[in-house]
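hey so i finally got around to running the thing on that chain from the lab meeting. sorry it took forever, my laptop kept dying and i had to restart like 3 times. anyway pasting the input first so we r on the same page abt which one it is
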Amino acid sequence: MQERGLLARIRRSEAASGLAIISPSAIYVIVMLAAPLAMVLVYSLMKDAGGGKIDWTLNLQNYWTIWVEKPQYRMLMQRSLMVSMLVTLATVVLAYPVAYFVSFHVAPSKKSLWLFLITIPFWTSYVIRVFLWKVILGYNGVINSGLLSLGIIDEPLQAINYNVGALVMTLAHAYAPFAILPIFVALEKIDRSLLEAGQDLGETRLRTFWRVTLPLSMPGVIAAVLIVFIPTVGDYVTPDLIGGGKLSMIANQIEVNMLKQQNKALGSALAVSAMFVVAVVSLVFLFLNRRFLRGQK
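ok and heres what got predicted. didnt touch it at all, straight out
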């Protein structure tokens, strides 16, 4: 009887109610996300037996191949990180003024309209948006055709397509809303009286922004950086379309190993290595940001 009473109290407790609420989503996450990641980790410790088959002998040969034997994999990783960092920098630098303008200079009654306009790119498929940039930047694209018709150039420019700049421009445009929205939310939470107090104490607008607005909006900036940086490292559609096959990134190599070469073991090791590198870079960024905020106090 005591055990039944104890079970009844547990079922009526807040913890049990909370577990009951989150259990469906938790099970879904475990089945759809954690289980595939665990399988990728297991595959990365196996050996390719040819023909898409796996030798289930545990070993670290795949990681040795990636980090020691074949430097091209390290070069792809470095290129992916460089492109992703450039995209993140460009996206956040361009997104912050937009979010700041909407938060501080747009009337409250019109902010929802501005946010609606910012989300318009989500109305179309990501692949279509990337392909449209290829049309714009292509050899016979909109920019080259316009410059030729105006007589500004004599032949199409080749420096605006199939290079890192075009790749960064395309990805920055694709991920801009993901950066604008979290920064805007962080700016909206700032108490305007703090800014007025800083200016009353003799601070200039620039100093007030640097010492008050920017530190208080850093949670949104951090969210924007991580939201843009993490997925762009694993992007393979944009390098394939905009890069013209000349700017392969680590995700493209993973696709080649997994689908074309049927080497699931090496492809899984590449995926795990990329996740590890992204996690390390993200943690370093968070650590440096914490030091920056401490220095502002």
